Amino acid sequence: MARPWPGVDQALIIAGSDKRGTIFGIYDLSEQIGVSPWYWWADVPVQHHDQLFIRPGRYVQDEPAVKYRGIFLNDEAPALTGWVREKFGDYNHQFYEKVFELLLRLKANYLWPAMWNSAFNEDDPLNPRVADEYGIVMGTSHHEPMLRAQQEWKRHGNGAWDYSTNGEALRAFWTEGVHRNRNFESITTLAMRGDGDLPMSRETNTALLERIVTDQRKIIAENVNADLSQVPQVWALYKEVQDYYEKGMRVPDDVTLLWCDDNWGNIRRLPTAEERQRKGGAGVYYHFDYVGGPRSYKWLNTIPITKIQEQMNLAYHYGANRIWIVNVGDLKPMEFPIEFFLDFAWNPEKWPADSLGNFGRAWATREFGPEHASEIADIVETYTKFNGRRKPELLEPTTYSLIDYREAETVVADYQRLALRAEKLYEAMPEEKKDAFYQLVVYPVKASAVVNELLVTVGRIACTRSRAAPPQTNWQIARVDCSAPMQPFPITTITGWRAANGTT
């Protein structure tokens, strides 16, 4: 801008409609200069430039399609928790500053904090203050109402977590939560589930839950703002809670309905035409990580961005655009889908289904340069596709057939070829990029290859033993049908495979 004020001939001015808008503008420019949003979390080196030039002009970025866009740090022990305690001492504001910066660099503005063994507001009183300073809107998970962590009830709760028998104690507990956070930007979770992320009761007691919500809103009106439409509130229709809604329970029009997936990336329900008229709108709680029945998955990324685009595009077009929050577990294994989820939340129209390959290539170019970007993108997208068909934690020796169509052999060979490609690219990387490349590409591919080979090998051993065993022997792990002739299937160790392919 020419002569923005006396004594200045030219200036670069970054202006936002609010604090977050200005921050997003600053970090947009930072990324264009060559600072990856993952520079700290994934050791992506910052590009050096002797000179920087900006083309004169006025550049405007529209508002996001989804108002509140964020992540949920969950199932965080032992991996993230052990690392946090070693590096920061606890889940304190020094740790969360790194999370807040990452969120802002990814144009997010919303967080459900880690909660397995910690309490965001209580463990470090600076946590909520720093969040507010950064412009991060804080919330609590689907089973932690009124801005209070589950751990806070475990530490200070008086009596049972049961509103029908202990309502007075719970009201006092909740009052402390909303009063404590009244000056910070928050979204208050309403209603109630059972203690420890369980159903509140065996039956769907809508009358009781309606009374709970009424009492909670009275607490908010008395302690935050008598005009409840000015206080963001959400009702998470997670698991059995959706049954309450389907059986006729309703909440006031200004409360956001947070629809949920089935914990496996399939959204169970979206707003009807009538529901899309509600003032509070609707949102989606999604999963990249899950701990619970019938099976858990929390190790590696198993979420193809094609799946995210399909499901969240439905959410967008059906008007569930007030809140998008995704469970990312430990955060670190999910860098690629986290960035896509948040980028898609800002502008879904940017990523139609037939353009998703461009996202991977742009991501790889920014992190590792243009030379190998297409191949890197293909490796990342392929291993997540492979893991998406059967998550590593769900693999068993019998998952893939050892006798039909060479299925198990094909699966293992596909992973091994992918791992070899990743290792060759690792050797070609400049030294300063190898740490980031190992974290973001090599490790997840190799780990996936190893665990698939391991389980197939166990299946072959079981099959061999069942053939050799006397008929009366009960082989506990021999669950493979070995009645048909087995095809030759030489499984080597990863070390042997590497040696055979000219690498170590």
Number of strands: 10
Largest sheet features: 8 strands, parallel
Tally the structural domains.
3
Strand order of the largest sheet: 5-4-3-10-9-8-7-6
CATH topology of the largest domain: TIM Barrel
The CATH C-level class name of the largest domain: Alpha Beta
- Separation of termini? 56 Å
Summarize the structure.
With 504 residues, the protein is an alpha/beta fold.
Task: Compile the SSE list and pairings.
Elements: E1 2-5, E2 8-10, H1 19-33, E3 68-73, H2 79-87, H3 93-105, E4 110-112, H4 120-123, H5 126-134, E5 137-138, H6 150-156, H7 163-180, E6 188-189, H8 206-223, E7 233-236, H9 241-246, E8 256-260, E9 282-287, H10 305-317, E10 323-329, H11 335-346, H12 356-368, H13 373-389, H14 407-428, H15 434-468, H16 494-500
Parallel strand pairs: 3-4, 3-10, 4-5, 6-7, 7-8, 8-9, 9-10
Antiparallel strand pairs: 1-2
Helix pairs in contact: 3-5, 7-8, 10-11, 12-13, 13-14, 13-15, 14-15
